[in-house]
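User: Here's a chain of 346 residues. Predict its fold as tokens.
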Amino acid sequence: MQRPADYHATCRRGFTLVELLVVIAIIGVLVGLLLPAIQAAREAGRRSTCSANQKQIALGLLNHHETKGTFPRGQETWLLGSGETGVQNPYSGTLYPLMRWSWFFRVMPYVEQQSLYDQQYTWYFKNPYGCQWNAGATNCPGCSFIFLPGVTIVVPSFVCPSDYSSPKKTSANAASNQQGFHGNHVLVAGNTAFNPSGSWSSTQLNGIAFPLSAVRIKDVTDGTSKTMAVGEILVVPDDASGWAAGNEDMRGRYHNAWEALPCISTRYTPNTSVPDRVANCNAAKVPQAPCTPTGSNNHMSARSNHPGGVNVAFADGSTRFVVDAIDPTIFAAWGSRNGGEVAAND
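Assistant: Prediction complete.
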């Protein structure tokens, strides 16, 4: 059988192995060029969401001030307080120690969480002991925080999407000692250690919110646009082996807050290599969040997974991205509400 005259002209040959390898190499180069850009775009979106969440919290603080006359207390008892004069229970008028809620509870109605606030308010103040931890089962049945309504509910505005360990809803402890929701966004207690001269000194700090604080805008003499109110931290998973000073990490805990104030200090610049100092923390889980478990000279620093810095919000509701390489003097000044530092005007 005779082949058509145009047989060789119409016959198509396939790619050679060399050509295929060249095409694959080109595609690999293009992917290598595009992937970092895609990842950067995604991180930019996450960072923007994180900043927007901080702005919502900062505006919630201002609305709390408008309604109550002060910014919310950092927490309702002194740091690591035990055996000292107690805090007045607004339900009974009696002084009791260890009222363990934090500013998170107080700001709930001002960040669109009225229902959660109402549930927890009822639980906190349902009896004269008002959630006093050491009241005992007879005087205060159900006082353990595992019974707090909504203890594991995640409030999205308190989470930074760049932190892949966040939110943390459960602890590695036994079922009888769960601590609930841990998040990324915390308030600013000042620019010193949280307890520079013992537990009670934690009530005398120079930031916006700290144990038993009642800071008013008129107390912010450095100016609300020059005083940080909200910062971010990294949430650290607990060790599976359960509760111990080096296994459980309290950073970012909003409930049962007496050992780990949910605030930062601007004592050190963002993402510092200086370890945080918290009563219970896990130094091995997240290398970017080093920590020393201790009950003295406590502090937490601003930390994030954003390349090169952290998001912060100021007491006037404004937000900005602060680079890790910021002048330490300026960053420290931003943590103080009334230091009169010249750097605060930078």
